[in-house]
Amino acid sequence: MSLTTLNKIADGFPSTPKMPLLFLGHGSPMNAIEENEFVQGFRKVAEGLPTPKAILCISAHWETRGTFVTGMEQPRTIHDFGGFPKALFEVQYSAPGSPALAHLTQEVVHSAELGLDDAWGLDHGAWSVIKHLYPGADIPVVQMSLDYLQTPEYHYQLAGELRALREKGILIIGSGNMVHNLRLLEWGKMNSIYGYDWALEASEKMKNFILNDDHRRLINYRCHGKSFELAVPTPEHYLPLLYVMGLKTGNEAVSLFNDKTVAGSITMTSVKIG
Fold it and tell me: Does the record's keyword annotation contain Cell membrane (predicted)?
């Protein structure tokens, strides 16, 4: 890409005060259309956010070999689930994309080559929560994928390279669930607020690590025994948290919201930084 082109991209994102960061526990896709305490929590946190120029979302539901960013002008709404009511499949979140942000993201990352994707769109890890933050679908959204071949340390370090975007008016969102075990989920109790002992134990430790800036223990989550083995049986829903923590700087304020466990084995706990 030529220097002239890069300068034009940068001109589209002038410097701003540092944007906050969000990790959103997205839970069931039904949260996209249900009215409950969690979607109310998403809306409430949005009230305190500066209006972003665009959103960069790292969702648990886009895993790839290598790392990619969506580069299309108009991303499609992906219904990447099954067995839910027709009303959920009819939801369309028509936020525009931002090729300019996709290129800017490529430019700020130096440790890896980010590919440009024109086929993906917005999966439910992105649109099911962003629609509650910005129901008007008027903020451009770009997704960045999770390279499933890489280590937790890799993802955390890659996140640090995205920090410059926070001072370009970009709201960076990680969307997943800190505790996420579908094999042990009580499917008939998705609206029930309770957690298994191991889920509550892992959740409390995770929250302590977050609030005490103990990022090393968050990265090394596989070293914390049986409760973490059950809480994070696969990494994709946990890794977006590491992106948000890797983007934190200094003594920024950290707060938790939607801090509940549902159906035994999923925590909706969400994090706001800044």
Answer: no
